[in-house]
Amino acid sequence: MQKKIWLASPHMGGSEQKYVKEAFDTNWIAPLGPNVDAFEKALALYNEVDHTAALSSGTAALHLALIMLGVETGDEVIVSSFTFAASVNPITYQGATPILIDSEPDTWNMCPKQLERAIIDRISKGKKPKAIILVHLYGMPAKIDQIMSVAVRYKIPVIEDAAEAMGSRFRGRPTGTFGLMGFYSFNGNKIITTSGGGALVSNDEWLISRSRFLATQARECAPHYESMK
């Protein structure tokens, strides 16, 4: 029997309990606060991106990204075929249809040639895709330069699924920062873990602030509790 190779087995560094205890000692059990603020700033700095929103999961980050792009019922969204279901599920949450693109043999990620063929086909049928979800599977960067070239040519925004690619770089630049938005996962099997959680990143301040607003019950800035209807 072959030895099992774990995707990313969690490793405790020793200081985790200290910070959990600190949160209890300071009575800061709310989902947001100074630790989350510091985490967002550290993520932005590490990934060389302007804005970051810490969220409940990578799936939530992708769902919000699709909402930001106005994806709705009847739309089509291109996505890598070789991926986990979470890369596709948010498309269906919005009532849209996933268009699956096969892999190329070098990175096992989305094939740029198949991507362009699919875009041409959908446009010819009057269904220009609303977005492209590019997955960097197992931390391996896709052929980002070629894929972004296709996306720019047809003016289709790219969301990078870098859930498994924290720390990976393409030509010196962090994955998750090439498209309009990118996201990471902090699930138990990811590069770094908070047991659950995720983050949405972008150089567009409005996209991140709006995503954070929606992720916190759309609460308006008022002295009383008021939410957007």
List the helices and strands and how they pair.
Layout: H1 16-25, H2 34-46, E1 51-55, H3 58-68, E2 76-80, H4 89-93, E3 97-101, H5 112-124, E4 131-135, H6 144-153, E5 158-161, E6 169-170, E7 173-174, E8 181-185, E9 198-202, H7 205-215
Parallel strand pairs: 2-3, 2-4, 4-5, 5-8
Antiparallel strand pairs: 1-9, 6-7, 8-9
Helix pairs in contact: 3-7
Structural class: alpha/beta
Low-confidence stretches: none
How much is the average pLDDT?
Answer: 92
Number of helices: 7
The CATH superfamily label reads Type I PLP-dependent aspartate aminotransferase-like (Major domain)
Shape: globular
CATH topology, anyone?
Aspartate Aminotransferase, domain 2
Beta content comes to: 15-25%
Distance between the first and last residues' Cα: 57 Å
SSE pattern: HHEHEHEHEHEEEEEH
Helix content: 25-40%
How many domains, in number, for the residues? 1
Strands across the major sheet, in which order? 1-9-8-5-4-2-3
